[in-house]
Amino acid sequence: MLAWQQGMIARAVHDVEQGVAVVADAAGNLDASVAWHWLLVVVGIAAGRALLMYFVGWLSLVIQQDLLGYLREMILVQVQRLDLAYHWLHGAGEIVTRTTRDADKLRDALISFWRQVVDTSFIVIAAVGFLFWYHPLLGIGPLLLTTLGFYILFRQTDHLVQLDRAVGQAFDSVNQDLTEGVSGVRVIKAFSLESTRVAQFERHVRFFVGQALEALRYSASRIPIPQFVVGLGQVWVLGVGAYLVYTRHLNYGELVASLLMATTLVFRVEGVGRVMQVFADARSSAARIWELLDALPEIKGGTLDIPQGKALGVRLQQVGVEPPGGGNPVLDQCSFELKPGEVVALVGATGSGKSTLASLLPRLADAKAGKIELRWDDEWHDVRDFTLDALRRAIHVVPQEGFLFSDSLASNLRLAGQGATDEELLWALRMTSAEEVLARLESGLETRIGDRGITLSGGQRQRICLARALIGKPSILVLDDATSALDAVTERTVLNNIRRLPEDKGQAVSVLMIASKLSTILLADRVLVLSGGRIIAEGTHASLVASSAEYRELMGVQELTEVEDGQ
Amino acid sequence: MANDRAPALRVMSDIELEEMLAQQKLQRGMFWRLLPLLRPVKHFVAGAIIAEIVLVGLVFLRPYMIEQVIDHGLVKGLAGSYSLNTHIILWALAGMTISWAGRFGLAGVSQFLSGSAAIRVLNGLRVSVFNHVQHLSVGYFDRTKSGRIVSRIDRDVDSLEPLMIQGPPELLSALLRSVVAGVLLWLTSPVLFLSLASVIPLLFGATWLFKYLAQSNYARVAENRARFTAHLVETVAGVRLIKQAVQEENNRARYRVLIQDFINALIRNTLMSGWFSHFTGVLTTLGMMLLIVFGGREVALGHISFGQMAASMFYVFMFLGPLQELGDLFERYINGVASAQRIFLLLDTQPEIRDAEHPTPLQQVRGDVEFRDVVFSYHPDGENPVIRNLNLKVEAGEVLAIVGPTGHGKSTLVQLLTRFYEVQGGAVLVDGKDVKSVAQHELRHHVGVVLQDNVLFSGTIIDNLRLARPHANEHELIAAAEALGVHDIISRLPHGYQTEVGALGSHLSHGQRQLVCLVRAYLADPAILILDEATSAVDIQTERKIQHALRRLCEGRTAIIIAHRLATIRDADRIAVIRDGQVVEQGAHDTLMRQGGHYAALYHAYEAGQEF
Fold first, then answer.
1. Whole-number Å distance between alpha carbons of A367 and B124
2. Which residues of chain A does B512 touch, with a Cβ-Cβ cutoff of 8 Å?
3. Do B130 and A328 count as a contact with CB atoms less than 8 A apart?
C-alpha cells in the first residue's frame, strides 16, 4: 500500500511536471534546451514510475494470488468439511462451478480492483485536485459530474448483479449436463441417446444464451449514460477554461494541461464502467462462494479419542432419520446392538434405509432422534462425544461403489493409513484376495488406477476398497454391500480373513455387513432384519428362516426350496 | 516426498495423452480453424466494426474542437488581453458534447453487437464440442480425466471470447486511430510526425520481445489451472471417501501444491510479460515530450499555431495509445490461441470406433451372437490382453449366463458386443454379421445393456424411463414397471414416478437405480439383452419378485446374463465360465456339475456357504 501511495505521489508529481513543462515551453519558446531539459526530467519520472508500477503490479499479483489461492483452498476445505447431505442436495456440478467459475470472476474483480479502482480513485483525486489547484471553478464541474456518474453507475450495478445471478444459475444446468454427459457415457451410448443429450444440452445452452443476452442488453444500453455524464466534465473544462483564460486566471499551457487531465479522467472512468460489470459479476459470484463457505456442517465432533486396535461395540437406541426433503422417515425407532468382535449381517428390502444406517455410525450423517453409542472399556459413550477423525478412523464404511482417485494403487491404499509400508499394503491386498488383481497390473503398486488409470471391474474395485479399509485398522468395519460384485468363493475367503484378523494381527474387528446375497448373509454370526425403518427380527439365519416370515420372504428361502424340490 | 516432484511430470503426460488420442500436435495454427466459426455472426461483427469506425471519427472531433477554441475562440489582443468569440466557443462545446455522447453511445452499440456475437458463437461452439464429445468412444473417457473434458467445454470455450469477438473490432479501431492520428500529424507538420514516429522502432522491438517471452508461458498456466480443477472435481466426487479415511488434511496439502504451482507459473508469466504496458507508458511520455520539443520549435518558427500544437498533443494519445492496446490484444490472442488449440485437439480426436462407410443394414435381428477368436486389450498396442482368443456362440433366444472370477473379462466381453470397445483380433458377430460392419446406433438399438454403472440422468424417474422409448406415454412407461414387478418400489419413493433422481441418479439408492435401469432396458425391447450384474444391489426379495418377470423378459430374445447369484445363473439355458479371458467351461447346470470343474467348485462353495 505504501508503494501504491508513493506511485501515486510520483504520478501526481509527474502530471504536475508535465503541466509545468508545457508552461515552460510556451514561455521560453525560443530556447529548446529548456524543453530538452523537461524532456529528460519527465521521461525520467515516467521511467521511475513505470519501474515502481511494475514492482507494485508484481507485488499486488502476489498478494492477490495468495488471497485467491487461500480462497480456493478454503473452498476445498469447506467441500471436505460439509456433510454428505449438503453434497447430496447440491450436486457436484454446482460445487465445481462455484470453485472454478466463481473464483475466476472474483479473481477478475481483484485484478480490476488493483488496476482500476485503486489506480482510478487516485487519478480522480489527483485530476480533480489538479484542476482545483488551477482554479476552483475549473474543478467543481468535473467533481460534481464524476460524483453523479459514479452514483448512477452504482445504482445500475444492483440490477446487473441480479441479471448476472440468473445467468449463473442458467449456467449451472449447462454444467450439470456436461458432467452427466461425461460420466454417463456408457448409458448414453447404449441407448443411442447422443442426439437427445445434445439436444437437451443445446436447450440449456439456449436458455443460458437468452439470459446472457438480456444482461448484455442492459449493460450495453445503460452503462454509457454515466460515462457520458463524466465525459461532460471535459466539455466543462473547455468552456470554463476558455472563460478563465479570457479573464486571465489561466494561461494557455494550463488550459491544455487541464484538458489533458480531463481526458485522462474520462478515459479512466470509462474503464470503471467496464470494471463495474466485472464487479457485478464478482458480487454475485462472491455471494455464491460465501454461501458455500458460510454453510455450516451440522455434524461437529466431540473431544474424546478412541484407542486403536480394540474391538468396539456399538448400539443404536430408538434412532430416527428423515429424508432431506421431508416425508416418510427412513429410520424410525431403530435399535440394535453390535458386540465387540461380532460379525452381523443386516438385511432389508431395497430402499429400506440400510445405507443410511451405515452412514450414521461414522457420523457421515446424523440421526434426528435417538442415540448411537460406542462401547469401550465397558462404558457406553455417545458417538457425538468423539472427535470426528477418531470416530471415522475407528468405524470404516465401505460402500458398494468405492471411489478410487486417479492416482497410483499404493496412494489409493495409503489413503486409509499414511504410514503403511509396502508390506502392509501387500498384506491387505492378500487379505482381500486382491493379490491377483495386483498381479495383472504392469507397474504393481505404482500402477495408476481411477478416473484415468487402467480400467478395473466392479469386483476388482471392491477388493481394492476392502483392502484400503483394512489398512486403516478400523475397530468396526461396515460393509455396505461392499462384496456384491465378488463371487461366492472370493467373498467367503475375504470375510474369513477378516474374521481371523485378531489372531493374525491382534487387531479385533466388529463387522456389520449390509448384504443382499444369501452367500454373504450366511457368513454372519447373526442377522438383523430391517423393515419399516426398524429392526423387526434378529437371530441366526436358521432361526430366522424358522421364525420370521418376513425374512423368509425377503430371502426367497421358501421359493428357493421349492425350486430345489422341483428339480 | 515423491509426490511433490511428480506433478511437474504429470503436467505433460496429461496433455501428451490427449495428443496421442487425437493423433495431432497441440501446437498448430488456429486462424483458419477459427475463422469459419464467425460466419453465422458476420453481420454482428461487421456492425461492430462499422460502429468502431464511426467512433474513431468522433474521437478526432475533440482535438479539432480544442484547436478551434484555442486558435479562434480566444483572440489575443495587443496588450496580452483576450477577447472571447462566444459563437465559436459555444459551437465547440456543443460539438464536444455530441462527440462524447456519440463516443459512449456507439461504444455501447459496439459492445452489444460484439457481445451478442460472442454469446452466440461461443455457445454454438460449446454445443458442437459437447456433441463431439458425446460421440467419442468409451475408451476416450476411460483414459481422459472427466474434469479435463469438462474444462474444455467450459473454461476454454470462454477464453476464446477476447480472441474471436472483441479482437477484430478492437484491432481495427486501434489501427484506424493510429493511422488517422499519424496522417493528421503529418498534415499538421511532418516534423511532428517524425518526432513521434521515432519511438515506433522501440515499441516494435519491445512487442517482439514480449511476444517471445509470453507465448510459452500461457500454455503452462492453462495447464496448471486444468490440473487443480481436476483435483477439485475429484475431491467433490470422492468426498465420502475423504471423510471416511480422514484424509482432509493430506488432500488439502496436495491441492495446495497444485495451486502453488499454478500461482508460481502465473507470477513468472507476469514477471516476464508485465513490463510491457509500463514500458509503452514510458514510450508515450517520451513521444509526448519529443513532440513538445519539436512542436515548440515549430511554433516558435511560426510554422504551426499553438492551437495546432495543443491538438497534436492529443494525437499522441491517439497515435501511441492504440499501439499500447496492441499489447493487450496480443496477450488475449495468446491466451485465446492456447485455449483454441486445446479445443481443436479435442475436436480433432476422432472416435476410435467409427461406423463403416457403408454399414450393413441390421433391421431385423434374430439374436445369434458369436464371439470368434476374440482378442482384446485395453492397451492400444495389445499388451496384457483381457480377452484371449475367446470363442463363444449364443443361439437366438438362448439365455446364457456368464460366470467367473471378477476381473477375468466378463464385463469387457459384453461391452465388445455393444461395440463400446473394438476387438483387436477375431470378430464379434450378430446374426452372422460382424458388428464392425453395422452402424453403431443400429446395433445398440438391437443390443440392450444394463451395466454395472447404472447411471440415471437428472430429471424424474419417468424422464429416465422415457429415454428408452421417447414417444411412449406415461401409462406405457408405468405399465412396463408393473410388468417387471417394480411398480410398488417406485411408488414408495417420495414422489413416485415424479421423484427427481438427482445428478447421475445420486438421490436413489444403488438398488433403486438398478431397478429403474432394468425397466429402462425392458422398455427398449432389444433382440439381445445383456445384464451385467443388473440386480446385484437389489435385495433377494425384490429380485425374486422380478425373477419371473426377468424370465419373461428374456423370452423371445437372446439374453446374456452376468451374475454372481447362482440361483439366477441356474435358470439359464447354458452357462459359460470365463477365466483369464477364455471360456474354460460351458454347458447346462447339470452337465457342468457332473464335470466337476470350475463351475462345480463355485457351486459347492455356495452350497457350503448355505450350510454355514
1. 47
2. 350-351
3. no
> Average of pLDDT values for B392-421?
86
Closest CA to B154 of B246, B226, B260: B226
Q: Minimal Cα distance from A192: which residue of B?
A: B441
- Among chain A residues, the shortest Cα distance to B517 is held by A187
What distances in angstroms separate CA B334 from CA A419, B32, B38, B225, B226, one per listed residue? 45, 16, 19, 16, 17
Distances (CA, A) of A129 to A7, A16, A245, A272, A465: 17, 11, 19, 19, 69
Read off the pLDDT of each residue in A135-157 and give the average, rounded to a whole number.
Answer: 83
Contacts with A, B 516-535, CB within 8 Å: 517, 520, 524, 533
B500: amino acid identity, one letter: E
Backbone region of residue B80 per phi and psi (left: phi > 0; alpha: psi in -120 to 50; beta: other values): left
Q: Which of residues 505-534 of A touch B (CB under 8 A)?
A: 516-519, 522-523
Cβ-contact A525, A342 below 8 angstroms? yes
Distance CA B162, CA B335 (A): 9
Q: How many CB atoms lie within 10 A of CB B421?
A: 23
> pTM here?
0.68
The alpha-carbon gap from B28 to the nearest alpha carbon of chain A, in Å, equals: 26
Classify residue B35 by burial, with Cβ atoms within 10 Å: 0-12, 13-18, 19+.
exposed
d(CA A513, CA A476): 11
List, as ranges, residues 184-243 from B with C-beta within 8 Å of A: 228-229, 232-243
CB–CB contact A201 B297 (8 Å): no
A424-462 as b/e: b if 16+ CB within 10 A: bbbbbbebbbbeebbeebeeebebbbbbbbbbbbbbbbb
B68-88 pLDDT, tens per residue? Answer: 777 777 666 555 566 667 777
Q: What is the DSSP string of A417-452?
A: -TT--HHHHHHHHHHTT-HHHHHH-TTGGG-EESTT
Length of chain A, please?
Answer: 567
CA dihedral B464→B470→B474→B476, nearest 10 degrees, is -110
pLDDT at A6: 34
Read off φ and ψ for residue A503, nearest 5 degrees.
-70, -45
Residue B346 contacts residue B22 (beta carbons within 8 Å): yes
Contact state of B540 with A182 under an 8 Å Cβ cutoff = no
Give the integer Cα–Cα distance in Å for A134 and B407. Answer: 85
Q: Which pLDDT band, with edges at 50, 70 and 90, does B254 fall under?
A: confident
- Tens digit of pLDDT for each residue in B464-511? 888 888 888 889 899 988 888 888 888 878 788 888 887 777 778 777
Task: State residue B371's pLDDT score.
Answer: 92
Helix crossing, A224-246 with A194-222: angle to 10°? Answer: 20
Question: C-alpha distances in angstroms, B30 versus A234, B36, B130, B160?
Answer: 43, 11, 20, 11
* pLDDT digits 0-9 by tens, A187-196: 777 777 777 7
Q: What is the mean pLDDT of residues A261-287?
A: 72
Distance CA B333, CA B340 (A): 10
